[in-house]
Amino acid sequence: MVDEAQAIMDDKKRLEQYHRINRLWVEEMPAVPLYQQLDLYGVSKRVNWKARSDEVIQAFSMSLRESQ
User: pTM for the whole thing?
Assistant: First the structure.
């Protein structure tokens, strides 16, 4: 189902497919999450950057703030 969702080019239809997958996951509970990793990042106030939910750090999305 996930492979099918990834192949859908229409944003709305792809989102609907992901919602179906999520509902199925909650209803069937094929696995029980026992642990959730806590992410902790230390970033200078001079750096513009926002942590991603998938834990991927993309340096090209970072920038330096102008000096004040």
Answer: 0.47
